[in-house]
Amino acid sequence: xxxxxxxxxxxxxxxxxxxxxxxxxxxxxxxxxxxxxxxxxxxxxxxxxxxxxxxxxxxxxxxxxxxxxxxxxxxxxxxxxxxxxxxxxxxxxxxxxxxxxxxxxxxxxxxxxxxxxxxxxxxxxxxxxxxxxxxxxxxxxxxxxxxxxxxxxxxxxxxxxxxxxxxxxxxxxxxxxxxxxxxxxxxxxxxxxxxxxxxxxxxxxxxxxxxxxxxxxxxxxxxxxxxxxxxxxxxxxxxxxxxxxxxxxxxxxxxxxxxxxxxxxxxxxxxxxxxxxxxxxxxxxxxxxxxxxxxxxxxxxxxxxxxxxxxxxxxxxxxxxxxxxxxxxxxxxxxxxxxxxxxxxxxxxxxxxxxxxxxxxxxxxxxxxxxxxxxxxxxxxxxxxxxxxxxxxxxxxxxxxxxxxxxxxxxxxxxxxxxxxxxxxxxxxxxxxxxxxxxxxxxxxxxxxxxxxxxxxxxxxxxxxxxxxxxxxxxxxxxxxxxxxxxxxxxxxxxxxxxxxxxxxxxxxxxxxxxxxxxxxxxxxxxxxxxxxxxxxxxxxxxxxxxxxxxxxxxxxxxxxxxxxxxxxxxxxxxxxxxxxxxxxxxxxxxxxxxxxxxxxxxxxxxxxxxxxxxxxxxxxxxxxxxxxxxxxxxxxxxxxxxxxxxxxxxxxxxxxxxxxxxxxxxxxxxxxxxxxxxxxxxxxxxxxxxxxxxxxxxxxxxxxxxxxxxxxxxxxxxxxxxxxxxxxxxxxxxxxxxxxxxxxxxxxxxxxxxxxxxxxxxxxxxxxxxxxxxxxxxxxxxxxxxxxxxxxxxxxxxxxxxxxxxx
Length: 808
What we know:
Layout: H1 3-10, H2 14-26, H3 30-36, E1 42-47, H4 53-76, E2 96-101, H5 104-121, E3 128-132, H6 133-143, H7 145-148, E4 156-157, H8 160-177, H9 179-187, H10 195-223, H11 228-237, H12 251-268, E5 271-272, H13 274-285, H14 288-297, E6 298-303, H15 311-320, E7 333-337, H16 352-364, E8 368-371, H17 379-396, E9 442-445, H18 450-467, E10 472-477, H19 480-491, E11 508-511, H20 512-519, H21 521-533, H22 538-550, H23 559-563, H24 566-570, H25 577-580, H26 584-602, H27 608-615, H28 620-636, H29 643-656, E12 677-682, H30 683-686, E13 691-696, H31 722-734, H32 743-766, E14 769-776, E15 780-782, E16 791-793, H33 798-803
Parallel strand pairs: 1-7, 1-8, 2-3, 2-6, 4-5, 6-7, 9-14, 10-12, 10-13, 11-12, 13-14
Antiparallel strand pairs: 15-16
Helix pairs in contact: 2-4, 3-4, 4-5, 6-13, 8-10, 8-12, 10-12, 10-31, 11-12, 13-15, 17-32, 21-22, 21-29, 27-28, 31-32
């Protein structure tokens, strides 16, 4: 306890504290007050966007700690405890209130808020602890290394780059150990034995299909508590139905083999991943003595962003929230979240259905609170979000994708929980709650094409900034390539009909995706240098071509076709097929590659990285980052720069992931919402942020809701994606389905899952706006944003029609 804490304790005024906490409670909205009034047991809190989840949790925590402080003082003074406070006797000084959230920044912010409210209450900042879920698990595992089997002195947390290499090695070892299964995949639905096609399929399986399957399944299964052995046993129960159209693959059996190889490699190299931390903590809690110890130290658990929890993480929290002496008693557990903002379930194990089920269980016991009032947005934006939610749910109630084999598997799961956003009351303490709209508050447009879209955004933004120079604005995009397209046009006005210059209005432009691209520069340089060192390696050639394709330096194409025979691609003979039937798209890629190889021979090694930065057409900040990288590598190689030395140094740098790009901006989320700035950011990254004005361009049906994409190069396997099939089959098991769906049914279910999540993502994007929500779908737009100039007629996202006001 600090000196300040001792002083606050000695000068504690119970009456003043009660008055202060009542004032804090009065500042809360009805749903938030349910948090502050909690008196044990399980409580689910379902909150709408902008409802103030973290503020409600922080004030509720401070009030609970103030009540505990008073009770402890009464006990120490020998005074009687009031009946309504008797339950707090169990909240002894040896026990803590544990709060968990998902990111370190969120944990730090929550801790700061709690301390602030405790100061207002003159209460010591003790009796609580804030963790990330993985941080909490690591604390438990570290304290009992003999039980957890986790020794951080001997183990290393696997980095993303190391994980990718492990997945690649797992695939190679699985292929070596399962030649018959691999041959079945190689033959696909039909195969004529042609050698070029065989090489192409090998490339697709080794570098795309099997690594994706391994990554998806390991993440899904491990985060759900399924071991490789359990997955293999589940694969034996999977009912595979031969429809006569597609050859069946036991996808879970293949996935279990890849998972097993990955786990073997982790153990051999003394690596652990994030799920290993949770599993290690759960192993500790299997021991009765250790479990009683931890439960005796924790009074209750409060969880934020509960919609993003995996089954394994939920199991850990529930273990800790149980009573140490009578586990049959209700859990002291509050879970706060918004299932309608679950936007990670198609690429992480987080599944909103689990939090929904927790809400339903609590509702049956009268322990569900709804934070449905939000002061962030103007009323017209709230109406639009509610209308969108209702329309999507109504559409989803029409059955889709019913399985002809297992109709019991196809019960529709609604994309949204029925929960309407309500404006706050007139006396709400939030300043400028439900602000006055900018114009109509919601505007929907249909520009001629994507170029006119950007021009209209610039014009509207300029008019707003002229009246309010300090406006906070953002353009939210579905993918980074859209953001780069918008940034290029706004920074180079006058091109393609975009004449409005935002700088004339004093507006800055921040493209959040630029920093991500800069952080990848060491990895890009490593990929190209590996190709220059071994140009006849199919893997190095493909990796390098992908860099060029992602940077739009060569057209998008099937890279497997080019890399199946590197020598023939790079230096075709007069008898090659291309000699009689030239392919201009492949020729462009070939010329770029041979040009790099020629420069490798002509330039001294110390000039290679600056040359590559120019060849890749890096922008100014990227060039500065490349210069910083080259200077660092030169200092590191004191004996002289060589290609081998550069590759070795870059490999070490990429593996350590400790190279920061050149960035003059402050590294804080506040820079995304700076006044007088237009922030270009993806919808996913915008979650948790808000702006006065939000633009949502390029809302086409092909993008939202879109479809589960099946790359043409993988279609020899059938009309489904193995990774998505496996994900749907595992989730069917986790959701308690009586039978595992066949491949085609699982693929249909994966399509529904994607559609639901895309609509939730749009809902999140819409609710970022305070005063103006500007939405558009151009009449002509790219079919794929890897080719932004290839415009075609595109249908708008169906939500836009539902949001249009009815005809008068």
